[in-house]
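This part of the workshop introduces the protein records we will be handling. An example says more than a description, so a record of this kind follows:
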Amino acid sequence: MQFQQLAYFVAVAEHRHFTRAAEHMRVAQPSLSQQIRALEHDLGAPLFHRIRGNVSLTEAGETLLPIARRILAEIEGARRAIRELDELERGRVRLGAPPSLCTGLLPAILSAFRRRYPGIQLELHESGSGDLRQRLSEGALDLALLAGPRHAGDHQLSTTELLLEELVLISAGTARESTSTRLNVRELVDVPLVMFRRGYDVREVTVNACRDAGFEPSFAIEGGEMDAVLELVRAGVGAAVVPSTVVGGRFRMTRFAADAGMTRIVQLAYRKDVDPTRAVRALRLAIVAFVADPVRRSELPPGTRPLVDYAELGLGER
């Protein structure tokens, strides 16, 4: 008995027609009929009644059908398991993230992931969250870390909220010159800002906060990427609103008032309509588990608060 013979048998049983079964299996009808006869010979019993073109199962055929379906399902399950195992050896994951997360959160996660799955090829795409959301929707990315305000949602994307991240105002100086005074957004009215290019979530949060406070922000210069914005602030061109995770001790920092709403949500996003590979699922779980793990919370960048935990995700005990 051969697996292919069982597949041909199930096709004829479901179509109740040899020619249509052959078309479904993409094989010549005489070849399919020959394999069915060989199977019947091996089993020692006819499997079909063949009367003037009408095909129906014999008692032996009725007995074999559920067994054949179960065998074929188990074979497909074995093939899928082997393919998925291979994906963890040779898979590829295209991950997108904003620059602040590429330097703050991701290095520790990706380092641990590479040690566990050295055969998986990782492609990191660095850009603003608006750009990343678009590329994810277009299928150019497998996963993306998106940062910004809570959105009503994208019908194409599934998201998991990971972190609440604080935004702060930085200016030229050092950490020794940072102030403990809390800033209201209204106080930015006369502050020339070094502003990110369009597509960066921090730009969206800052501009919207200023407008909610009743004024349009003043730009000393705009259009930069993260590294450019930081260097322009260091050179004294203006101040900038940035995630607290990128500040370090290099700038004078002022935090916003707790009710100012100057925070952003970091989410892990992926397409709802795309069946992820095992490599993609493995990285997705690694990212969520890292943030949710209470033991690792000391490794999270400063100014961040986890929004997930093991109990909620059903990840079990560490």
The longest helix spans residues 59-90. The two ends are 48 Å apart (CA to CA). The CA atoms of residues 167 and 204 lie 12 Å apart.
